[in-house]
Design a protein that fits this description.
The chain is mainly α. About 50% of the residues lie in helices and about 0% in strands. The longest helix is centred in the first third of the chain and has 24 residues.
């Protein structure tokens, strides 16, 4: 994706989020299902949300990733140990032939 396409995608995504937020904000007064949440549950949800926000802040401010490992010659000199697999024929020579007459595929 080019830079302009990425920028357009980000702007459209942002506009979508803004419209969704506005829609949810305008629907705040009306409960769609008509369910009343008890006060105790609201307090528990608020407390859990505050704890989540605090932990998220701790994670983003106190944890730093050390990227020196990726520049280490031991890491950059790693080599691949993957193995090549044998190429085999795929399917039948005539896919529209009757299934009771199966002809083996000749291997090169």
């Amino acid at each position: 994706m080019g830079k302009s396409a990425t920028n357009i995608s980000v702007v459209l995504g942002f506009i979508t989020v803004v419209f969704a937020g506005y829609y949810l904000y305008t629907q705040n007064g009306s409960t769609g299902l008509g369910v009343d949440i008890p006060e105790q549950n609201k307090e528990n949800m608020l407390r859990d949300t505050q704890i989540f926000a605090q932990r998220s802040e701790i994670l983003t401010t106190q944890i730093k990733m050390d990227t020196r490992m990726f520049k280490d010659p031991k890491f950059t000199s790693l080599r691949s140990f993957s193995t090549d697999f044998l190429k085999t024929g795929i399917g039948r020579t005539d896919p529209f032939a009757d299934t009771d007459v199966i002809m083996p595929i000749s291997q090169p």
